[in-house]
Amino acid sequence: MAQENELRKLQLAELKIMDLFTEICQQNGLQYFLMGGTFLGAVRHKGFIPWDDDIDVGMPREDYDRFCDVVDEALPEGYVFRNFLKGNESTIYYSRIEDTSFLINDNSARIKRTRYAWIDVFPLDGMPNNALIRNIHKFVLLYRKLALQYSNFSTVVNQDLPGRKGLEKFLIQVGNTIQPERFFDTQKCLDRMDKTLKRYKYSDSTYVVNFLGAYKFREMFPREIYENIADYEFEGKLYTAPKDYDTVLTQMYGDYMTPPADMDKYKHHIDVN
Q: What residues does each domain of the chain span?
C-alpha cells in the first residue's frame, strides 16, 4: 500500500507538469498528442494505467522545435526543461519537463540515479515516401539509436524492461560485456540522431513516427492519423490524441483492452524519496 501511495504522489506531480505543458501549447498555438501508455491509459482507464509512472506526449516536429524555443521563459520557478540542444541534458535526445521539488530514485539502469518527477515530450518526424528509401532510413535510425544507447549504456538502458525481444536482450548482454561507452561519443551520437530525424519534413511525409518512444516503428502511422483528433478524459481533464485510437493502440499493443500479466507490466523501477 505504501508503494502505491508513493506512485500516486508521483502521478499527481506529473499531472501538474502536464497542466503547465498544455497551457504553454495553448498560448503558442502548438499541437500535441497523448502518446504510448498515456494514450492507452486515457482509453482504457480514463487516467493513468494503475502501475504507470510517467506521462508521454508527442508533437509534430515543427511544433516541437517551437516549443523548445519558448518553454524556458514560460515555466515557473521550480520547473526545468531538459533538452540536449540547450546543453542541460547529456543522455537522451527527446525532451523532459521536470519538477525539481519532487525527488525520485531511478533504479532501472546499471548505475542508479536521482531524478525529478517528469513528463517526456517526443518529436514526431517524417519518413520517406518511397518504400525502399523508407526501409533504408529505418535501418539508419535503428543504428543511430543503438549507438546513442551504447554511449550511455550504464545510465540509460533499463536492464530489466519486460517484453524485450531476443535481439534486444542479446545487445544488452553485449553491452554488459564490452562496456560500449568507450567506443561511442554521446554528443556526436546526439548530433547525428538529430540530423537523421530531421531529414524528412513532417508536413511533406505520408508516414510519421515517434521513433524515440519505447515502441520504435510500431509508432509509425500515416500522418492523417494525427490530423483527425479528439479530446480524451485523463484523470478528470481533457487532452488531445488521435480520434482513431483503435488503429493506434492495436498496432502498438495488440489486444489493448486486456491488461498484461503482472510480469509483463512496464516498470521504470522508480522509488519516491
A: 2-272
pLDDT over 60 (residue 80)? yes
pTM of the model: 0.87
pLDDT averaged over the chain? 88
Chain centroid offset of residue 41 CA: 15
**Rounded CA gap, 15 and 203, in Å?**
30
Q: How far is the C-alpha of 121 from the C-alpha of 96, rounded, in Å?
A: 6
For residues 187 and 180, give the distance between their C-alpha atoms in angstroms, rounded to a whole number. Answer: 15
Give me the amino acid identity at 57: V
By three-state DSSP, how is residue 269 classified? coil
Residue type, 231: D
The single-letter DSSP state of residue 75 is S
What span, in angstroms and rounded, lies between the C-alpha atoms of 96 and 181?
23
The more confident residue out of 154 and 188 is 188
Q: Hey, what amino acid is at 217?
A: F
CA atoms 42, 48, 49, 52: torsion sign: positive
For 237, the grid coordinates are 481533464
Please give the Cα distance from 61 to 64 (Å, whole number): 5
Q: What is the pairing mode between strands 113-126 and 56-60?
A: parallel
